[in-house]
Amino acid sequence: AQSVTQLDSQVPVFEEAPVELRCNYSSSVSVYLFWYVQYPNQGLQLLLKYLSGSTLVESINGFEAEFNKSQTSFHLRKPSVHISDTAEYFCAVTPLYNTDKLIFGTGTRLQVFP
Amino acid sequence: GAGVSQSPSNKVTEKGKDVELRCDPISGHTALYWYRQSLGQGLEFLIYFQGNSAPDKSGLPSDRFSAERTGGSVSTLTIQRTQQEDSAVYLCASSLGSGGHEQYFGPGTRLTVT
Q1: Measured distance CA(B42)–CA(A36) in Å, rounded
Q2: Is residue B25 a contact partner of residue B37, using CB atoms and an 8 Å limit?
Q3: For residue B106, which of A29, B18, B77, B92 is within the disulfide window of CB 3.0 to 4.6 Å?
Q4: CB of A103 within 8 Å of any CB in chain B?
Q5: Cis, peptide link before residue B8, omega less than 30° from 0
Q6: Are strands A44-50 and A31-38 parallel, antiparallel or unpaired?
Q7: B37, B24 in Cβ contact below 8 A?
């Protein structure tokens, strides 16, 4: 079985500061990894994903995440956040042998203050 | 094009009543998923449909929960004899298939059982 841990339920940060949202997973098999974002009053949207290849993946709005197999982590980072980044961020995995369903973490609420 | 739609957006029901939640996936998407988002518990996989294959019901929490997908398109999640612990946001997603394809989420149905 797989599980995902997001240790930080809330992360407050000032605008233009860097941020890291932590994600660790547990799995005995290889997995695909995802970050989804849920903006206020909106549905979940895919932010970025790691399937294979380069362990550093980037999104179009400046977020990046690095797959670290030895540490079983997929932390999300942004060097300078904006007010508009305020949202709930969910890390998720799916095992390669059964990519039919996503296993989500409990989410991290990023609150960006002016 | 149109995204995943769900109805109703909000549903308040009395304990013991049955409810039906509807999901219209993106046209052409063969895979359809139901998740439940409870306060402080992240997203929980419920059921998965892929084409004409038998659905993966491994996430359904009890036999009060059932779902069907008619004609490979619209899906209905039914909860019988609702309980207060069923209160949550029920999310539907669709994708082109498994294998790491992005899941597109609907806005959800907020169910409140009084």
Answers
A1: 12
A2: no
A3: B92
A4: yes
A5: yes
A6: antiparallel
A7: no
Backbone phi, then psi, for B95, in 5-degree steps?
A: -155, 170
B93 close to A (CB below 8 A): yes
* Number of neighbours of residue B78 by Cβ within 10 angstroms: 13
Q: What angle do CA B83, B86, B90 make, to 5 degrees?
A: 150
Q: CB contact, 8 Å: B45 with chain A? A: yes
Residues of chain B in contact with residue A100, where contact means CB-CB under 8 angstroms, are 31, 48, 50, 56, 98
Judge whether residue A25 has pLDDT over 90.
yes
**Does any CB of chain A come closer than 8 Å to the CB of residue B33?**
yes
| Residue that the structure tokens 């998720």 belong to | A92
Name the residue facing A100 among B41, B43, B56 (closest C-beta).
B56
CB contacts of B42 in chain A (<8 Å) are 6, 90, 104-107
The 3-state DSSP class for residue A61 equals coil
Euclidean distance between CA atoms B93 and B23, whole angstroms: 8
Question: Which residues of chain B are under the pLDDT cut of 50?
Answer: none
